[in-house]
Design a protein that fits this description.
NAD(P)-bd_dom_sf, alpha/beta, Rossmann fold
C-alpha cells in the first residue's frame, strides 16, 4: 500500500503528513475546504505524486487500496473544518467491501467519548500533546509569543504535558499508522513544553495545571532538532508569510 488520502491537508498537521508521505514515496490525494492551495503549498513544489482536491469536488469514493488520514488535531481552537465533519466522513465509500485503513489523530484534550469511533478493525488512533515548529497556528502559546501578541493575555490551546516537533510527530504517525490500536505520542523529556518555552520567554506558566493523562500505548518521539533550532525555524516561517 502506497496511496494515502489526507484530509485537512492544508492545515497544520495535515500539511506535514502530506510532506512526510511524499518524502517516503507515497502517492497522496490531499483534501481540504479551500478551493485553491495556500501559499505554503509552494514548499512541496512540483510533485507528480500529489493531487489536491477541494472538499466540495471530492466524490467521497476512495481508491481500492489506500490509507485514510483524518487529523482532527487541526480542529482545535474552535476551528470547524467541513471536510472533517461527521456528515462528510460518514459518507466515505470504498471501491471494495469494507473501508480502508483509517488513521485518526486527536489532541490530548479531546473528550474520549466524543472522539469519532470506527467499527473498522483496520484503524489506528493517535493522541498528541502540543505540536510546534513551522506553521504553528496562532492559538498556540509559542506562536503568540513569537508574534508578540501576549499583551492582552489571549487564550492558548497548548497541552502542557509535552511539546513535539510537528515534523517528528508526522513521521512517527506515518511509521506506526499501519498498526491497529490506540497510541499516545510522548516527547522524550517530560518537561519538554516548559523547556521549549524557556527559549522564547522568561515568564513562568507553572501555575497552569497540565492536561489530562495520556492514554493508549506510548510512543516516545525522539527529537531530530533542538528546541532552539525548531523555534528559530518557526520564527523564520512566520516572517516569510
Amino acid at each position: 500500500m502506497n496511496h494515502a488520502v489526507v484530509f485537512a491537508a492544508q492545515q497544520y498537521l495535515g500539511f506535514e503528513l502530506c510532506r512526510a508521505l511524499l518524502e517516503r514515496g507515497w502517492t497522496v490525494t490531499a483534501v481540504d475546504d479551500e478551493a485553491e492551495t495556500t501559499d505554503k503549498w509552494l514548499e512541496i513544489g512540483r510533485n507528480a505524486n500529489i493531487q489536491y482536491i477541494p472538499a466540495e469536488e471530492w466524490d467521497r469514493e476512495l481508491p481500492v487500496e489506500c490509507r485514510l488520514f483524518l487529523p482532527y488535531y487541526d480542529q482545535i481552537g474552535g476551528r470547524s473544518l467541513q471536510c472533517l465533519s461527521p456528515s462528510v466522513i460518514g459518507k466515505i465509500k470504498s471501491g471494495e467491501d469494507g473501508l480502508p485503513e483509517i488513521v485518526r489523530v486527536f489532541p490530548n484534550q479531546t473528550e474520549r467519548s466524543n472522539s469519532t469511533k470506527s467499527s473498522n478493525e483496520a484503524s489506528a488512533t493517535f493522541y498528541l500533546p502540543t505540536l510546534y515548529g513551522g506553521h504553528q497556528p496562532s492559538h498556540f502559546l509559542f506562536a503568540q509569543l513569537l508574534e508578540g501578541e501576549r499583551e492582552n493575555e489571549s487564550r492558548y490551546e497548548d497541552d502542557r504535558s509535552g511539546a513535539i516537533y510537528v515534523k517528528d510527530a508526522a513521521v512517527s504517525i506515518l511509521k506506526h499508522s499501519g498498526s491497529h490500536g490506540t497510541f499516545s505520542l510522548r516527547p522524550l523529556s517530560e518537561n519538554s513544553w516548559e523547556e521549549a518555552l524557556s527559549y522564547i520567554t522568561e515568564d513562568s506558566f507553572s501555575s497552569f495545571k497540565k492536561e489530562r493523562s495520556m492514554i493508549g500505548e506510548p510512543i516516545i518521539v525522539h527529537p531530530t532538532k533542538s528546541h532552539e533550532s525548531i523555534l528559530k525555524e518557526q520564527k523564520l516561517v512566520m516572517n516569510s508569510f
